[in-house]
Amino acid sequence: MDVNPDRLNAFIGKMLGDVGAAMNASLMLIGDKLGLYKTLSEKGPFTSTELAQATDTSERYVREWLAAQAASGYVEYDAATGKFSMTPEQTMVFGDEDSPVFMGAVGSLVSATLLDEPKISQAFKTGKGVGWNRRSECLFCGTARFFRTGYKHHLVQEWLPALDGVVEKLERGAKVADVGCGHGVSTRLMAQAFPNSRFLGFDYHPGSIEAARRAAKQAGLGDRVRFDVHSAKTYPAAGYDLVCMFDCLHDMGDPVGAMTHVRETMAADGTCMLVEPFAGDRLEENLNPVGRIYYAASTVICTPASLDQEVGLALGAQAGEARLRDVAGKAGFTRFRRATETAFNLILEARA
Ligand SMILES: C[S@@+](CC[C@H](N)C(=O)[O-])C[C@H]1O[C@@H](n2cnc3c(N)ncnc32)[C@H](O)[C@@H]1O
Known about the structure:
Bound molecules: S-adenosylmethionine
Structural class: alpha/beta
């Protein structure tokens, strides 16, 4: 073996960073779950004793957690006072659920991938799928909260206006289906912004639909918003002006069948909005930090979900625009374009 010591040291350095991040993943979940980040960012600087008192937790655990957070660069430590604090930037990422860069929910997603690992390892051997209904609970709420950040700051402000003539219809009063809606975060955001329109959310996972119903009731959205258990290929047709699919087409076993049904349930001049993970068409275009996150999620979440369903096309979370265009074309859509994009999402418009 011809080992280059500089390259070896550089690779070990990278791995030390990655191992540190992996070891700290559950600490991120703990900080989010117990309100440690939120309390520290809102009320700090705090010593470990003060943070423990403010969050009704045990000081010894909080002291160790704070040390790990400071070593991660997620909180600041002042050796002179023994107090910990969070900068405005750290607060935006971990402490403020409404910030445009909040990522505090990622700990739940990482935790779900580890809890479900035995099922996924087994699936690697058998080639069979692991359905959404067989996943750990934290995957559902983690997904809803993690994606909420992007939806809250882009959906009504940028994505819907990028579609041809859709906002005018929504303002006048349109009928909208949110297919694969999960906990219905996107459905609620649209319903709040467009009070003249009606929204129907569909998902094949009963637990998610129950959660979506509870949240809509809490938000006081009344009968303008309704959630029902249906697969993307069976939800009732109703001449929808807009059918949305947020980060779910690639999770489906039969995306061509699903998109065919979408087209058949739409009004003649209706629009389908596909929100999919940002990706280039070729693997080499996606070998970057965003692709790294998505390929990992795809391996343990999206690909097993699709392989569990009929057809099992398993597009993967990095399908890219060309592959998605092909799916839409096979489903009978004649017009397809990239309406807009963010660092994390492609927003695609398909019309019959
Ligand atoms: C990654 S989650 C996204 C959920 C939600 N759209 C969001 O953005 O928060 C994928 C969703 O697709 C749903 N799903 C997967 N296959 C489906 C199918 N064939 N029909 C309906 N829903 C499906 C899952 O139950 C899950 O809620």
